[in-house]
Task: inverse folding
């Protein structure tokens, strides 16, 4: 195998270069959404943690993923877009590399079974997105093969870097980046998997969408707040139609609750 030796470029220099290139793209009207990780842990919420734990739980990736953590933490994922069945990202390495990850959408029978197993367990969209539900529901969501998170067989990826490894550090960084993005915008997981999160909510989210009925819980936010906090458009709840949600910049404030487990 032949490796092209390149002069050492510091992280700061690489980031500067990448920032310039991304600024160019932004000027052309392309939305840019970098993965910004505050603090030591990459993910902090149920959805972000579970996304990462799912990937780490498969032997296929176990040896390869750690290389991506530093990259994800130091801001190398300079752009990350999540759409139905697809993740597109730019990662700053020796150069700027393009990463594309395809993830199968959830099959109807699989989704129906998940929804039926969680029936009546989740009261509102905000509780769903904040991961506020029973241990049973958590386990059901995270169940390998049958939950909401993809198996390695459902994931394919490409990177424009010269690394011939099965899973290069750029792809690994992007996969962690998705975890971080799900902390801020958990609804993107449902969009990515092509399912409607409203199906999981008892009474189909009537309390949220109808202004006539006031939600009983004081914790509930109104639709506008939800849109801001989670980057979702409640007026257009069908995931097939709201791929634009994936292009929104992540909200500044982290709205989701912290779980005990750090990363
Ligand atoms: Zn790569």
Result:
């Amino acid at each position: 195998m032949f490796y092209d030796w390149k002069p050492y470029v510091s992280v700061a220099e690489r980031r500067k270069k990448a920032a310039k290139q991304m600024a160019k793209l932004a000027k052309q009207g392309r939305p840019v959404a970098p993965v910004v990780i505050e603090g030591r842990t990459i993910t902090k919420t149920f959805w972000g943690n579970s996304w990462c734990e799912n990937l780490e739980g498969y032997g296929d990736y176990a040896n390869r993923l750690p290389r991506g953590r530093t990259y994800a933490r130091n801001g190398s994922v300079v752009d990350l877009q999540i759409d139905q069945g697809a993740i597109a990202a730019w990662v700053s390495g020796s150069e700027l590399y393009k990463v594309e990850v395809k993830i199968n959408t959830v099959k109807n029978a699989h989704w129906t079974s998940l929804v039926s197993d969680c029936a009546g367990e989740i009261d509102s969209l905000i509780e769903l997105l904040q991961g506020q539900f029973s241990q049973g529901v958590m386990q059901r969501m995270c169940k390998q093969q049958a939950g909401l998170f993809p198996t390695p067989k459902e994931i394919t990826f490409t990177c424009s870097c010269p690394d011939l490894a099965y899973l290069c550090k750029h792809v690994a960084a992007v996969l962690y980046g998705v975890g971080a993005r799900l902390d801020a915008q958990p609804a993107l997981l449902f969009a990515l998997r092509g399912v409607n999160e409203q199906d999981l909510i008892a009474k189909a989210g009537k309390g949220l969408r109808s202004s006539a009925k006031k939600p009983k819980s004081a914790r509930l936010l109104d639709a506008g707040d939800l849109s801001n906090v989670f980057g979702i458009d409640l007026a257009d709840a069908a995931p097939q139609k709201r791929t634009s949600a994936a292009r929104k910049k992540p909200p500044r404030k982290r709205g989701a609750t912290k779980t005990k487990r750090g990363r």
